[in-house]
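As a warm-up, study this chain.
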Amino acid sequence: MINIAVCGANGRMGQEVIKAVENTDGMTLVAKIDINNGEFVTIQDAKNSVNIDILVDFTQPKSIYENALYCLNNDINIVIGTTGLSDSQINELKNLSESRKVGCLIAPNFSTGAVLMMKFAQMAAKYFNNAEIIELHHNQKKDAPSGTAVKTAAMMAEVNQNFTTGNCPETETITGARGANSYNNIHIHSVRMHGFMASQEVVFGSDGQTLRIRHDSTDRACYMPGVILAINYIAEHKEFIYGLDNIL
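Now compare it with the structure written out below.
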């Protein structure tokens, strides 16, 4: 039996994780952690009261790094769905996970469809020298660009060095009009608007053609098979993993 704690238990994703864990054989929910009326307020509070094998974190960008450091330094394996970690923070967590032999899986997106979208974009990136990413989320998402967009751009950049080939010199008459310039000149455009949940489109262009690869999430339940997969994987492998694509 895997003992699971959920951090951010009262959030929309946290509530979905709790339902998924409670409905999965071989898993026991031992702690609900949240600053707003959780069973426990902090991870340390929970650790002092119950035995935690794996903590699943869906909190917010300002707290995830410290949460992850605490878990890894206290032998609690962690599955991270919270986005907003910087490249340097991810690298630090990787080094700590590997040195202490404590499992840490970070997934910018737990939807299998979104993971496939990222893989397809990486495949297409070999054949197109122009590409941009448009990501659309609800207006309560606190970080931009999304972790999914950042991960997608990083994967695309692994196989192509420049995504603005042939572009003329540009001048932004309004700062930010061209979006954020990320890895290897992949521009990312973030939309935050009521009515969206989570969507991403990768647009490729070359002479005489365009290619659009898009994924839309319409219900948070779509993330739960990926979360359960991540929990089971980390329970058996005390490794560092960045991206659900690495265990599919």
